[in-house]
Structure formats: structure tokens, C-alpha cells
Amino acid sequence: MVHPHALGRSGNGKLQLLAWQTAGLGRSPLPEGWRMFDLARVGGVELLQAQFAPRPQPADGRWTAGIAEPVAAV
Fold first, then answer.
1. I want to staple 68 with a disulfide (CB 3.0 to 4.6 A). Which of 11, 27, 32, 40 is the partner?
2. What residues have CB less than 8 Å from 29, skipping those under 6 apart?
3. Do residues 22 and 55 touch, judged by C-beta distance below 8 A?
4. What is the SS3 assignment for 54?
């Protein structure tokens, strides 16, 4: 399960989603944390009726260096 925070294109043009992962499998040994998802590789999405509080955006306005061209942010 993830809480989406920012959507945009990486430097190589891939559509990426920056999200806070709260549950599920991932490459990190930590159960929670910031994760970047390549949307071309995401499948089996289920929209839940859950709500979450957005995490504060960094003072410089950039979520991550991984998103070169922001499209949307929470």
C-alpha cells in the first residue's frame, strides 16, 4: 500500500510516482519509507477508499532529484 505524493517524469523521460509505502513487498528491508515507482512497470492497482495526511514538501519545492519534470503533487 502506498500514499502517492508526486508524479512526474524522470531525467530519461519515464513516468514516475513518488509515494510513501506503508505495506507490501519491496526491495528495501524497511517496511515503510519513500519509494519511487516506474509507472510502466506497475500493474494490479487497486484504488482504496482510505485517506492519508500528505507529508510536508521540502523547502526547495523538489520532492526528489528522481523527478526532473513534476506533473502533479499532493
1. 11
2. none
3. no
4. coil
Report the alpha-carbon distance of residue 7 to residue 9 in Å, rounded: 7
CB 9 within 8 A of CB 68: yes
Cβ burial 46-71 (10 Å sphere, 16+ → b, else e): eeeeeeeeeeeeeeeeebbeebeeee
Query: In this model, does residue 9 exceed pLDDT 90?
Result: yes
What digits encode the pLDDT tens for the residues 25-67? 777 777 788 888 999 998 888 888 888 887 777 677 666 768 8
> pTM for this one?
0.75
